[in-house]
Write a structure and sequence with these properties.
This protein has 14 helices and 15 strands. By secondary structure, the protein is α/β, with parallel strands linked by helices. The strands form two sheets. The chain has a nine-stranded mixed beta sheet. A six-stranded parallel beta sheet has the order 3-2-1-4-5-6, sandwiched between helices.
């Protein structure tokens, strides 16, 4: 069977399936500085096209031994880039058959993150999962516990956490360079995909290169439509988590890490016209965090759909906030502004930035070789990951996704973190869990 671009799936699959396991070669045979196959991880990927292709490039210092994707046309470039990796469509078959793998990359739509990662954890495999870690709060808690119980190296793909600039942001804030922080603001140009729409009614044939049933996975059945795949799935609540889920695990990370933002007690959201099945065109979400220990009371405000925060008084004439997305910490004596990944942190007023960069606080958080190397080294027992499921990315994802509860209910919510439930509006608790299709479980 040949796709519309002339690529023969059968021919490529036949060639790729011919890969054989690498021999264990002593170092002395390979020479100085060359890694023997026994020193490398055997990594299987669920997701091979789109964002997954970039993740795979970040893991090329190890062995990519198997690739799984429900859309073989979208995955074509990765199949060709890693000809020794055996191709699959069903991740369950891959995990059952590839007995020699050490670790799994999960880079699929949000609604399948948890079921795939859980299957890998049950097998004792290390997992790297794209953000957000899960689609629901319940999934985040269950997956964090499973990762802790499995005792393997886990990492979420919020790559900014491993950057030197995110560490610099925390060091500046902890040194008090802008004084006591009372408000933190985020903004983004997302969504850059269609949302604030109703379910399409016209019918389409499923492309021959796509396994639609496997794309749906645990989500309720609906007929195939190009409004869902590829990429545009992000705005649909059955598949994605909207602009908040897409960006906030990046942009909110520095504040979450610095101030331990695990337990907002109140949330409120304002949005454009709500739709039953998709996120709104734009939203403004307030998280309130009570004072705790050394952490002051904090108001965290998220804006998407090209909404921007008010211009801080610390900026001089001609200065402006980054476009189209960023993060802003407002302190008593200054402001700290950075990009969504923590890149290019700047202090305002400019005189403050010049003073701090000329005499910076001591580096108290070690720099890393990046999110991928950090994970693969942890898989080998060399150090720990910065965004592990139990200690960081699970709680971060939970905090982020609480904002979607406020968006979807349209009601100011009171959150009991210890109990894991909304206390003032019972219907919101129904959205904490996902209803899985028959044959799927967490």
């Amino acid at each position: 069977m040949t796709g519309h671009d002339g690529w023969s799936r059968r021919a490529v699959a036949k060639g790729l399936a011919a890969a054989t396991a690498a021999m264990i070669v002593p170092r002395r045979v390979l020479g100085r500085g060359v890694k023997a196959p026994s020193d490398t991880l055997a990594i299987a990927a669920v997701g091979a096209g789109g964002r997954a292709a970039d993740d795979l490039k970040g893991l090329e210092h190890e062995r990519i031994v198997a690739l799984c994707d429900v859309d073989w046309r979208r995955a074509k470039s990765s199949f060709l880039r890693y000809p020794d990796a055996k191709p699959y469509k069903d991740f369950r078959q891959m995990l059952d058959r590839e007995r020699g793998i050490d670790a799994v990359l999960v880079a699929t739509p949000d609604h399948t993150h948890s079921v795939i990662a859980m299957e890998a954890l049950r097998r004792g495999l290390a997992v790297y999962c794209e953000k957000p870690l899960t689609r629901t709060i319940h999934e985040a808690r269950v997956l964090a516990k499973a990762a802790r119980d499995a005792g393997v190296a886990t990492q979420m793909g919020n790559q900014g956490h491993a950057s030197s600039t995110t560490r610099q942001i925390r060091e500046w804030l902890e040194a008090g360079v802008i004084g006591k922080v009372s408000e933190i603001h985020y903004w983004t140009n997302r969504p850059i995909w269609p949302q604030a729409i109703e379910r399409p009614s016209e019918s389409h044939h499923t492309p021959e290169w796509l396994d639609w049933d496997l794309f749906l996975g645990p989500a309720p059945f609906r007929p195939y439509h190009p409004a869902y795949h590829p990429f545009s799935w992000r705005g649909w609540w059955d598949f994605g988590t909207g602009a908040l889920g897409d960006i906030a695990c990046h942009s909110m990370d520095a504040a979450f890490w610095t101030y331990d933002l695990r337990d907002p007690d109140r949330l409120n959201a304002e949005t454009t016209t709500p739709f039953a099945e998709t996120a709104p065109a734009s939203s403004r979400i307030e998280y309130h965090f009570p004072a705790r220990g050394q952490r002051p009371e904090l108001l965290v405000v998220w804006r998407d759909g090209n909404l921007h925060p008010p211009r801080p008084r610390f900026l001089a004439a001609g200065e402006d906030l980054p476009q189209p997305s960023g993060q802003l910490f407002l302190g008593e004596s200054g402001a700290l502004v950075a990009g969504i990944y923590g890149e290019d942190p700047r202090l305002y007023p400019k005189k403050l930035h010049d003073e701090v960069t000329a005499n910076p606080p001591a580096e108290s958080y070690p720099r890393t070789d990046g999110v991928y190397k950090e994970w693969t080294e942890a898989c080998k027992g060399n150090g720990e990951t910065g965004s592990s499921f139990p200690d960081h990315s699970g709680p971060l994802t939970e905090m982020v996704l609480l904002g979607n509860l406020a968006v979807r209910t349209g009601v100011p919510l009171e959150w009991d973190a210890a109990a894991g439930r909304v206390t003032n509006y019972e219907p919101a608790n129904e959205l904490l869990h996902a209803e899985y299709r028959k044959g799927w479980k967490l």
